[in-house]
Amino acid sequence: MKPSIPKGTRDFSPQEMVRRNYIFDTVKQVFQLYGFLPIETPAMENMETLMGKYGEEGDRLIFKVLNSGDFLNGIDVNELQNANIKQLTSKISEKALRYDLTVPFARYVVQHQNEISFPFKRYQIQPVWRADRPQKGRYREFYQCDADVIGSNSLLNEVELVQLIDDVFTRLNLPVIIKINNRKILSGIAEVIGEADKIIDITVAIDKLDKIGVEGVNKELAEKGVGEEAIKKLQPLIEFKGTTTEKLNFLKTLLSTSAVGLKGIEELEFIFSKPSAGISEQSTLELDITLARGLNYYTGAIFEVKANAGSLSSSICGGGRYDDLTGIFGLPNMSGVGISFGADRIYDVLNELNLFPESVSASTKLLFVTFGEAEQNYCLPLLAKVRKAGVNSELYPDAKAKMKKQMSYADDKKIPYVVIVGSDEMNSGLLTFKNMTSGEQTKIDIETIINSVK
After folding, report:
1. Whether the predicted model's global pTM rises above the 0.90 cut
2. Is the peptide bond before 236 cis (omega within 30 degrees of 0)?
3. What burial class does residue 449 get, using C-beta atoms within 10 Å of its C-beta: 0-12 exposed, 13-18 middle, 19+ buried?
4. What contacts 206, CB < 8 A, 6 or more positions away?
5. Which CATH entry fits the domain spanning 14-41+99-352: 3.10.450.50, 3.40.50.620, 3.40.50.720, 3.30.930.10?
6. What is the pLDDT of residues 55-80, one digit of tens each?
């Protein structure tokens, strides 16, 4: 049988890992620059920790882990034949793979509340799993890079997260559109169209506007029981185009009778009034009144970031404010706001646009090539010196290998510089230094080589 891996998962080659680490390192540096501290949580959580936090659609996408040993022990045949899937799952599967990093973070905060100083700024870079249908840009196993501030109601946190997003994508040289909306506005809209109790169905449907279009959204709303008159009232909102100021004025008119809607507008006005001076030219900040983000726990500002170049239109970063996520674990009134960078999608966009720096593609910068064992022995202290200076380097290990084979190794690994050492080099102390890109060769000492490569 041919070896294979599950659909929606991937192997990563050394070249891909070097590039992925470039993304992780860039994100991590910015997180630390803004005062966030790292934590890690287990790949598995107890089932009750995860279920009921992501809405009906999210719950279906959680990977359940079968209990160890005989997981059917204690389940009789009749129960199996007539089983209610939900009830059966809870009996044979007590654990699940984490769906995101936010809910495990909320669990962590409650569990360790006496050891934490609030507001607590944490970042977390770990894999998550979703039993989704694999397609381009959508995987079953993927990494998230999260930053959250919990224990503070201040909207300055939202402003800072916008600046952080801009900072990350500026360093990655990727132009982006940062879309912002507010869940209070969506609640206000549900209220004024007379469907307040259908807020979740409305947000889930509107969130799919880019994928299924206006007709698809209207069809889904009707299927969820939203009245024809209410759907008609939604149309001006879904189709409205204009500047940020025009959109805010439109919303003020539309939501004039909704206290919660007006509060959402006030919060957005605060965010838009602050960060514009700190945003780079390649980032666009946009109010998107159809942005919904389907997750149930958002209660305030919501963010979504898309690349402003290339063919991939999917979200590469998202997040929002949640007023009481920890309340479900017994710690009420703990407001937080966070964002999550989708490393895999960012990789795909950078790859398509050829935005990885050349220096990222080669992990080894310098290869020592020799003609025999005596030359290898001569190179070992030189290799140690080069590494001590911080230059990634290696010595070809087979002393009997022909020169052609050693140079092919350098080519295959895209090593930019080679040092060739034979008897002449050992006698003079001047080493043959070759630039593999230009083909240029010179004879210089080890210190000059170190300075040239660095």
Report:
1. no
2. no
3. buried
4. 186, 217, 238, 290, 292
5. 3.30.930.10
6. 777 888 998 888 766 666 666 666 66
